[in-house]
From TrEMBL:
Ranges that cross the membrane: none
Domain Pyruvate carboxyltransferase: residue ranges: 1-203
Protein name per Swiss-Prot or TrEMBL: Pyruvate carboxyltransferase domain-containing protein
Pfam families: HMGL-like
Organism the protein comes from: Timema podura
Superkingdom assignment: Eukaryota
Length: 203
């Protein structure tokens, strides 16, 4: 793929100390995996831990960074930070975690909304706070359209300062996939966030 597509960055998901599996591997295995991945053309490593367990995240971040990859540390989103009665996963929790990932040297911060829980109101609160705290750090948002609110949430993220939001081609979008690319492109047409993409070419 790299030979055929030389000029577009490739991104992969790295489960921290679990690499691309569902069990912990010795650190040297994770480091070697990242080294070989970069040699084969991988560019960006989205590093996450489903429980936001910092030691696991840092193993993956250090392995990807040492290999020469771009480190995109991901915060797994859960709860509803727009609801003040839910105090465990509140704004302070996410900002503190972002602080630790920035200290650990991430190049990009990612919000990984794997269950499609990020509502537009919560997205505005979270992304605005991250953008205010880290004005120069790229912010990347990933969601699944499980609840059907993905386009609205990604639009809120974009308007609040996110640099990148993940979408899927229309025929493969929605439900447990990502929000519709066509819907996002059409929604942003004529706005200051216009993608510049020709809707006829978005399929």
């Amino acid at each position: 793929m790299r030979k055929q597509i030389p000029n577009i960055p490739f991104q992969m998901l790295l489960r921290g100390a679990n690499a691309v599996g569902y069990t912990n591997y010795p650190d040297n295995v994770v480091y070697k995996f990242c080294e070989l991945s970069v040699q084969c053309g991988m560019d960006i490593f989205r590093v996450f831990d489903s429980l936001n367990y910092l030691p696991n995240l840092i193993v993956g971040m250090e392995a990807a960074g040492k290999a020469g990859g771009v480190v995109e540390a991901a915060i797994s989103y859960t709860g509803d930070l727009s609801d003040p009665s839910r105090t465990k996963y509140n704004l302070k929790y996410y900002l503190n975690l972002a602080d630790e990932l920035v200290k650990a040297g991430t190049h990009i911060i990612c919000i990984k909304d794997m269950a499609g829980l990020l509502k537009p109101a919560a997205a505005r609160i979270l992304i605005s706070a991250l953008r205010d705290k880290y004005p120069d750090l790229p912010i990347h948002i990933h969601t699944h359209d499980t609840a059907g609110a993905g386009v609205a949430s990604m639009l809120a993220c974009a308007e609040s300062g996110a640099d990148v939001v993940d979408v899927a081609v229309d025929s493969m979008s929605g439900m447990t996939s990502q929000p519709s690319m066509g819907a996002m492109v059409a929604t942003l047409q004529g706005s200051k966030l216009d993608t510049g993409l020709d809707l006829k070419n978005v399929k």
